[in-house]
Amino acid sequence: MSYEIKVNDLTVWYKDFKALDQVSFTLNGGKIHGLLGRNGAGKTTLLSILSNFRKAKEGTITIDGEDPFDHPRIMQGTSFIYDKDLTYEYDKVGDMLKELADFRPNFDATYASELVKKFKLPLKKKVHQLSKGKQSALQVTIGLASRTPLTIFDEAYLGMDAPTRELFYKELLADQERHPRTMIVSTHLVSEMDYLFDEVTIIHQGKILLKDTNENVISKGFSITGNKDNVEAFTTGLEVLNSQILGGTKSVMVYGELSEQKRRQARDLDLDIGPLSLHDLFVHLTKEEDEA
Ligand SMILES: Nc1ncnc2c1ncn2[C@@H]1O[C@H](COP(=O)(O)OP(=O)(O)OP(=O)(O)O)[C@@H](O)[C@H]1O
């Protein structure tokens, strides 16, 4: 089971600072959505509203067709995994997992035990005594084993070492395959996680910059390299994200559709067309004026 999410004209203020500015989008159910944004872009603000931590005051949100705020079914069906402060969590790991099973109707205790083994979580240790990476692994275990129709991981990998992150990504894909749900995964580690996403949303300075399938986003990013004058002639009118000149050669990154006619023109001008990664697109699409 999975929830569809509709956000319409959502604006969030912190006193006189606008953290989200008329944000509108739909997230299809049963997909893994990558939510990408730079520091302070508004990711956590958005995710805390989707997970009922905060009420939408301007704009509307529906999750599975309902206003999610204070809605028992939607709240029970939503997991929000974030960098939680576990300093005062004196329960033992095993007890915490047992208690959770009572609150989450879909919680799979057998799968949780498998994850405990894979992440090497010490069941008898108190949660606040776990290392940062193990605390994150515990949170991820809870997020995956809860099997909620909406599962949100907000930079859930913090403190995990590279092999543990790999394990998390592998489990996320495998369990999504077995039990499709709506997942939202926010991250800065774009190059490491890009293969996980079915759909991508980029948020920048409180606004949605881009929302599309991962495949479509990637298919619109190109690097164009060749003779400087030819590259300049070719890219006139295209959205140029970045350019570099080395002697008489120019290399640019562009974002947009390239028609067959444009591709022919590139061949005639002896230009090389290459793909761009989601990481490159993210970095350059969210570049600010003073970072050129
Ligand atoms: N409680 C608050 N009071 C005032 N401003 C806030 C508050 N929470 C967040 N902000 C501001 O709102 C903006 C968005 O913050 P948010 O935490 O949503 O960003 P983020 O994309 O999750 O960033 P990061 O990747 O750094 O965690 C930032 O400018 C932040 O300083």
Tell me what you see in this structure.
- The protein is of the alpha/beta class and 292 residues long.
- The chain folds into two domains: 5-205, P-loop containing nucleotide triphosphate hydrolases (Rossmann fold, 3-Layer(aba) Sandwich), CATH 3.40.50.300; 217-286, 2-Layer Sandwich (Alpha-Beta Plaits), CATH 3.30.70.
- It has eleven helices and 13 strands.
- The protein has helices at 43-50, 72-76, 93-103, 109-118, 132-146, 162-178, 190-193, 214-219, 228-235, 260-268, 278-285; strands at 5-14, 17-27, 32-37, 58-63, 78-81, 150-154, 182-187, 199-204, 207-213, 221-227, 239-246, 249-255, 272-275.
- The chain has a six-stranded mixed sheet with strand order 5-6-7-3-8-9, with helices on both faces. A four-stranded antiparallel sheet has the order 11-12-10-13, sandwiched between helices.
- The longest helix has 17 residues, at 162-178.
- It is elongated, with a radius of gyration of 22 Å.
- Bound molecules: adenosine-5'-triphosphate.
- Residues 14, 17, 19, 37, 39-45 line the site of adenosine-5'-triphosphate.
Outline of this structure?
Helices cover 35% and strands 30% of the residues. With 292 residues, it is of the alpha/beta class.
Indicate the topology.
Blueprint: E1 5-14, E2 17-27, E3 32-37, H1 43-50, E4 58-63, H2 72-76, E5 78-81, H3 93-103, H4 109-118, H5 132-146, E6 150-154, H6 162-178, E7 182-187, H7 190-193, E8 199-204, E9 207-213, H8 214-219, E10 221-227, H9 228-235, E11 239-246, E12 249-255, H10 260-268, E13 272-275, H11 278-285
Parallel strand pairs: 3-7, 3-8, 5-6, 6-7
Antiparallel strand pairs: 1-2, 1-4, 8-9, 10-12, 10-13, 11-12
Helix pairs in contact: 4-5, 5-6
The chain binds adenosine-5'-triphosphate.
Adenosine-5'-triphosphate binds next to β2 and α1.
